[in-house]
Amino acid sequence: MQGSEFEACLKALPTFSQMGSLLPFFWVDTEEQKPNKNIGGWMLMNEGALISVEILLIVVMLVAVFFCSLGEATLVAVNRGRLRAYIHQHRFQNARKIWEFLNERSNLSSLLVGITLLIMLTSALMTHLVEMKWQGLGEVAGLGMAVFILTFCEVLPKSIGATRAEIFLVRWFRVWKLLTKIFHPINAFVYFVASKTLKALGVNPNRQPKLNADEFLALLEAGVESRSIEPEEFIFAERILKLDEILVRDIMVARPDIVALPIDSSFDDVLQTVMQTGHSRIPIYEDNLDNIVGILYAYDILAKIADGERAIEPRAIIRMPYFVPETKPVSELLQEMRIQQTHIAIVLDEHGATSGLVTLEDVVEEIVGELRDEHDREAELGFQVDERTFIVDARMDRRQFEELTGVELPEGEFSTVGGFVFTALGRLPSVGEKVVTDDSLFIVEEIQRRRITKVRVILRGQTEQR
Q1: For the segment 274-320, what is each residue's pLDDT rounded down to a tens digit?
Q2: What does the H/E/C string look like for the chain?
Q3: Do 199 and 205 touch, CB atoms closer than 8 A?
Q4: Cα 154 to Cα 175: distance, rounded to the nearest angstrom
Q5: What is the distance in angstroms between the CA of the first residue and the CA of the last residue of the chain?
Q6: Tens of pLDDT along 190-240?
Q7: Model pTM?
Q8: Considering just the CA atoms, what is the radius of gyration of the chain in Å?
Q9: Cβ-count burial of 118 within 10 angstroms (0-12 exposed, 13-18 middle, 19+ buried)?
Q10: 353 confidence band (pLDDT: 50, 70, 90)
Q11: Which pLDDT score, from 0 to 100, does residue 14 have?
Q12: What average pLDDT does the chain have?
């Protein structure tokens, strides 16, 4: 190539100063640049167009930050039970895709990475935009943008998302799915670098810290306060976690209340006992209750009757009893009943004497509350002390309470008097604690096994008595 040709090529190339205009997001030569100036075949952007582009990018990124924050709050606060009911009620065709999006663990971290990245880019872009027009004010503009983003793109959407998480998830999951796809590669790269760094430091990134029962209950209690978990769900979980603290003797049927038969009982005696008590399993003893030799199942009796047999001796059809000590935790009893495939166990004291019996129903009632069947007698759930005072069982439901007192329980996500008191206080109360409504005063009268059992109700206003 001749020297003159080489010099001509150099002149055709833009200078370093002119090339700065090719990077409008980082530097602009405002003095030399002219509108749509063509340098060596390069079309440059003038300052006005650059400002317009940067403003547009800032607006787009602010909207993206808003939706990312809304998605983060929604994924954290969504209640799966309410979401399932909402989807079932409105019969959404994309229910499967919604559940897949909710169960994908990386979606939340992708949104968090997107929020961080967008906030950094938006603040930097605002700083550059202001610096072009007003020298020295770029840092102030960046700080102001950070405050704006924190208020309107972080706090506001998260507050909104936490209140109607299920509805937002159904309506906007496609937008969040698109955003997670955009930021997933960056999230994967960040996770890869972080995991390699942690491994180099001798830390296992996949190891999850184990929560003990108290820590888990504290998290659930925080969920109740934020209304992402129902009070009934908290009670249910608490009872399950506390099973290892409850002993068999705490829930067993005491020895005096055991319905049992001697081994030499006649078939008619056995049949009459089953019909009168409604029990499907009857302990059979020899000499006395300390020598229980088997369990008689009503199903076995019916099978014999179906075969046409009437002269049945209990000794011939009883099954081997299952014995447990009265100091055994209920959690262990539940596991053993599952393994032994039995629904009843005879409880022994430290001397080997029969102290009671326990059934699978007793264990289940410790978790879900009392169960009643057609053979259980309906106990009196409340009575009137005077014109304005009532003593009611905490299990009394809304209808029964209204029939007894003539007033209605306040609206809420509970179905019993005890549930109302627990929800109003937000925790397990102590005896004597009070809840005041427009119509009534509720006083906790009795608590058993961490459960409200009796409540005194005092009517405050003039109420029509039924």
Answers
A1: 888 888 899 999 989 999 999 999 888 888 788 777 667 788 888 99
A2: CCHHHHHHHHHHCCCHHHHHHHCCCCCCCCCCCCCCCEECCEECCCHHHHHHHHHHHHHHHHHHHHHHHHHHHHHHHCCHHHHHHHHHHHCCCCHHHHHHHHHCCHHHHHHHHHHHHHHHHHHHHHHHHHHHHCCCCHHHHHHHHHHHHHHHHHHHHHHHHHHCHHHHHHHHHHHHHHHHHHHHHHHHHHHHHHHHHHHHCCCCCCCCCCCCHHHHHHHHHHHHHCCCCCHHHHHHHHHHHCHHHCEHHHHCEEHHHCCCEECCCCHHHHHHHHHHHCCCEEEEEECEEEEEEEEEEHHHHHHHHHCCCCCCCHHHHCECCCEEECCCEHHHHHHHHHHHCCCEEEEECCCCCEEEEEEHHHHHHHHHCCCCCCCCCCCCCEEECCCCEEEEECCCEHHHHHHHHCCCCCCCCCCEHHHHHHHHHCCCCCCCCEEECCCEEEEEEEEECCEEEEEEEEECCCCCCC
A3: yes
A4: 17
A5: 112
A6: 888 888 888 888 777 666 667 677 777 787 787 777 666 777 788 888 888
A7: 0.46
A8: 36
A9: buried
A10: very high
A11: 43
A12: 78
Q: How many residues does the chain have?
A: 466
Q: Residue written as tokens 């209140």?
A: 163
Which residues touch 429 (CB under 8 Å, ≥6 apart)?
A: 421, 422, 444, 447, 452
Q: Please tell me the distance from the alpha carbon of residue 281 to that of residue 361, in angstroms, as a whole number.
A: 12
What is the predicted pLDDT for the residue at 241? 83
- Both tokens of 401, joined, read 């309470």
- Of the candidates 353, 355, 361, the one whose C-alpha atom is nearest the C-alpha of residue 337 is 361
Residue 219's Cα: distance from chain center in Å? 9
What type of residue is 172?
A: W
Structure tokens at 60: 């787009």
Q: Which two tokens stand for residue 320?
A: 């081997």
Q: Report which of 184, 361, 331 is spatially closest to residue 248, judged by C-alpha positions.
A: 331
Which residues are CB-contacts of 453 (< 8 A; sequence separation ≥ 6)?
393, 394, 418, 445, 446, 447
Q: Render pLDDT for 375-412 as a digit per residue (tens, 0 to 9).
A: 554 456 778 888 889 999 888 878 788 888 888 888 77
Q: How far apart are CA 275 and CA 149, in angstroms?
A: 72
